[in-house]
Batch of 3 targets.
Target 1
Amino acid sequence: MSKIDAVKILEFPELGDERGHLVVIEAYKNVPFDIKRIFYIYGSDNTVVRGKHANKHSDFCLINVSGTSKIKVTDTKGNQKIINLDRPHIGVYLPSMLWKEMYDFSPDSVLLVLSNEFYDENEYIRSYNDFLNGI
Ligand code: TYD
């Protein structure tokens, strides 16, 4: 099985009523990992490509809680997938060791990221050749 096959769209229940919507994400219930870190990306536009790295150990779940963006992932064999994040109750699960690019941000894009690991620059692979060579 290729790593890219583990990439999974997650649909979170929209709890809500006439007052509006509410989405809950709980570790091991809606995302397949323990949540240790949360960050979010906003203020990027459609000329920007972010990411351009892989992570040796971190899994991620990305959700456009506002606006839209696209995520392109590539595994070490060159298999690719493009995911459109365009609804606040849709996420994508990305396991470790995938090359990630985030792009085509709408002006109102807020991209929320959950991870199973604390930030550690040493587990980032920032060279595409190193990634393909499994370094
Ligand atoms: P960077 O990895 O370039 O962001 P992206 O994945 O969107 O391309 O991170 C931007 C800056 O923020 C960089 O200086 C590293 C820092 N950073 C942290 O300190 N902790 C974190 O959890 C993350 C994701 C980034």
Target 2
Amino acid sequence: MAGGFALATTLLTPRPGRAAPPTAAHAQRIKTLLARMTLDEKIGQMHQPAGGRQKALNSKIDAAALDLVRQGGVGSYLHVAGAQFLRDLQKVAVEESRLKIPLLFAIDVIHGFRTLYPVPLAMAATFDPEAYRACARMAAVETSVSGLHWTFAPMVDVARDPRWGRVVEGAGEDPYLGSAMAVAQTEGFQTKDLAGRDTVLACVKHFGAYGAVAGGRDYDSADLSERTLNEVVMPAFHAGKTAGAGSFMTAFNDIGGVPTTANAALVRGQLRDKWGFDGIVVSDWNAIAELIAHGVAETPAQAAALALKAGVDMDMAGGVYAAHLKSAVAEDPSLLPLIDQAVGHILLTKARLGLFDDPYRFGDVAREKTVMVSAPHRAIARDAARKAVVLLKNDGALLPLAKTAKVAVVGALADDARSAIGSWKARGEETDAVTLLAALKTRLSGVTYVPGAAPRSDDLSGVAAAVEAAKAADVTLLVVGEDFDHSAESRSRADLSLPGGQKALADAVLATGKPVVLVVMGGRPLAIPDLLAKAPASLMTWLLGVESGPALADILLGEASPAGRLPMGLPRDAGGLPETYAHYPTGRPANPDLAQDTARYHDLDIGPVYPFGHGLSYASFAYSDLTLDKATIGPNDTVSVTVAVTNTGKVAADEVVQLYMRDPLAAVARPVKELRGFRRLALKPGETRRVTFKLAARQCAFWEAGRWRIQKGKIELMVGASSDDIRARAAFAISVDGWSDTPAAALLTPVTVA
Ligand code: GLC
């Protein structure tokens, strides 16, 4: 068929920036199949029904579902799992359907499949892409042995408003950190050979600007400038694509009134034509049908046509392609070649996964019984959990605790195993989780526990006992925050203070005047400025997965020094949101002097309580000898930025060295600082290492008229331990203007340590 032939040729023609072109064998297979497929069978490939629900996987695979598979009416299932179950289901497709095209099986592996590691925002707080890669690799093993081919991760939505509950699923407020974590996850899930052993297809989501929804209200509109869209939102998507991610997912939201699921300029124009992406674009859940609610389609057939024209290959859980695309084609036969393209992307992905060569290569009933929450997998989760903990404050070196200390543990979250494993738990089991309380009981003799209050109750009857326990103890661990279900999808909150009776509990315990360590748990930054001011020591400990307790105990007892860094600032008040460290200077930069008329609130101090990149250590570090190998570089050149870092403390510890840049004078205002490199490194007491960042002029580019402009002039550099703890400064010059084709924050800076 003409469409098929044209497609096959297209697939073989390498386009700029695309992943490795498909092998000739793939293209031949696709051409042959497309020529044989009926329109119904083609539309079947574009249909991804739910095979179950998150809490009841496989539950919808009934006789009718199997018949639809036999008819070639399904391309993929999500919310399914199990090596034997999926082998049997695959068998129906590859042995009982006419064309024997294998199915794709998908699930949300967001921070682990069965061995849950810290939630993504906590993984970002590690500032350790290698730790993230190791976790994703481990998750891919558990996912693929369970017969699954595809995870809907990494979620790369940059977010600067923690009222949005889905901040828990991303890497926080910075596009560069987001790019680094997108690459680490994509490569961890897929390795370099998607058809290799124990891989799963990654899915970069949600394309795009879902993290910018108005007011942090989930599913709301995102209305942002073209500059912000390209400089802040797009980099991590580009980085994920360049890392070879095999699929993308469109988002629920509109951007300035154009729903992303119908946004041809964004999907077909930018992702496909400009970036050369040839994998699968899947809609989000029912998002094609929702084009009617958006008011851009009157009927499901019109919604189907819009999504197809936009470049959406597969309809997740909406059933709109399956039920209405055929009538849309009858109305408009020009859709037929677009269907061939969509099916071509789906078939190419199945070929890349090796499913045509061996449809049963995923799934291993024997290994499925041994790899889950194995000791090596737990060790990977525990290492990541330790690295994710952020020490916010440690006045008087209250931490680490002495092993002989009499410790009162107060707060229901200290023993909440369900919350420890977080939201989006895939096949995770709360019984796998070791809570903080359970871990401390094995490590300390004098532990008392009083729940005191809980995140979902206003009952304060336990506060008195908690106060007594605090008075009787040497030190109290005050464990408060949000539980697993306060954040994630459809969990926007307008009030970011402590939920339930926890604030009263915290105030009462702090009022004892006894030493208190504030342990904050949850999936989002909270606005708790007075608690952070009152408690002499505090930690942001997120939701750390199955090894939450042991990892936290390691930090609290000094087995490991904390080095996590905030991927999002901790706000003073929800009323001050959204906010970011990488803000524009404005014509009236915020001034502490309220007599000055400047860019700030009169009833709120300037900026977050603790900013992006903040995190303390049990050691201390000195930065020295910041040097550049060149004073001036051309637009296609790099400058090597070297700094010496010394552990001036008494204990071995990690430090996260951060490199920020600023363009102080350009054709457009540039942020006061932007992260352009970081490196977490271990240093023994007294040890000095030299860290070198190889920064390219392209990484200083800004969006201008559809391209990336590198402007002649000075670039300021700042190196330090946080976005507001700059230890050394330098500058270089770009000699002449130039142009780049890549989002600046998508380019990761090579870092070497000597
Ligand atoms: C959800 C989420 C998306 C997820 C999908 C499948 O609504 O928006 O992130 O991957 O549906 O569970």
Target 3
Amino acid sequence: MWRRAFLVVCVTFLAATVAAQEVRSKDGPGKAEVEELAWITVGADAFETLKEHEDAFAASRPLSRFGEVPGVVLTRVRLDDLDAISVVLHEAYRRCPGFVRHWTLADARRALDALAAPPAREPEAYTIDQPQAVARLTAAIEKPQILETIERLSTDFNNRYHLHPSGTAAALWIRDQWLAYAAGRPDVTVELFDHASTDQPSVILTIAGVTIPEEVVVLGGHLDSTSFNGGGTGNPNFIAPGADDDASGIAVLSEVVRVAMVENFHPQRTVSFMAYAAEEVGLWGSDEIAAAYQAAGVDVVAVLQQDMTDYFGSDEDIGLINDHTTPALTAFLGQLLDAYQPDLVWSLTACGYGCSDHASWNDRGFPAAFSFESLFGEHNPEIHTVDDTLATLGNNVDHAAKFTRLAVAFMVEIAKEWFEPDIFADGFESGDTSAWSATVP
Ligand code: BES
Ligand code: ZN
């Protein structure tokens, strides 16, 4: 039954994307749009499947390879065929929509180049040596806080679609929450990131690293939502609660921010929390941010994505996404789970396409990882519907709490806690001596 729902979701997503393309193209449409053509990249397996079904895409026939890197093919199709292509790929691979659309040939080639290129920065060996800091922050996690954030976002802002005023109001609400948590911390900034592609801003909270500020750890999730049966994205009464997708990811981030502030956490490396705009229409917010960071040469050492954290749909507790992610960082997430939540079962799983904001970073050569609520395909069947509510999540955040603990461990172990050097070695004049011991395993 939900298989059919997914087909509708894919198709509706495409309609929304096509309808929104003028908004995206502030610089004017690419040649492909003018000719009603679309550049898409698909898995090499998917390309072979599409070739087999070529007769179904009369307008696009014959499908040609315009570029290729191992595992991915760039092709060009008619806009009119995108829905049918999505249906075939969903049937064959449960991918949704199963391709990534690029606005121009140049964009598509850049994306292929990024996939072919080795990571811009080989991640350094990640280490686990902060058990006391992780324990201290973890003990401060409060499930009611996580629940409250999901509830507020999915009810007070039950339409966070990027084109809707309520989508921008939600961004301002998140900014204000984070500002309140950060009160009294001059080393913490909270800012809106304005986009060229949409009026919905992203929100970025940054804790300045004390000793290695140039190295940045990013934790992100998307603040927008969508729904195929919520009354139409152009409708002022459109409903898209997005409790799991992705209020649950924002709630995890907010709780990590809160405990970092409550526990007076000062990192050695800079830590940035990002609530991305306009993910649901093609990763636009994270794409612009990752591009800006790349252009500015920011040294992002690790990115963790939180998208859908509160639906317990598999035997495994946590799925670690292993496509469009960095193997060494994904392996480190597994080590963090084994070290700090040994009772949890995790497994690798693939989206099959750039399904969330981790891809924006990964595809530009930044180390990225994505912890997900289930194995792909066993996730919340109500996403992108009016029933993606807290009720569907059982009105509790037991599952999201696992992701919050993992995100705390990720932040602490990669950024590492900093303590004021104790110049009085005998300890008589020292500040927080318990804090010193936190660095000793
Ligand atoms: N949270 C979903 C992605 C997702 C769905 C991951 C199901 C794993 C299982 C995300 O918000 C989304 O819908 N992404 C788009 C990506 C596209 C716009 C590039 C999608 O999957 O269609
Ligand atoms: Zn999502």
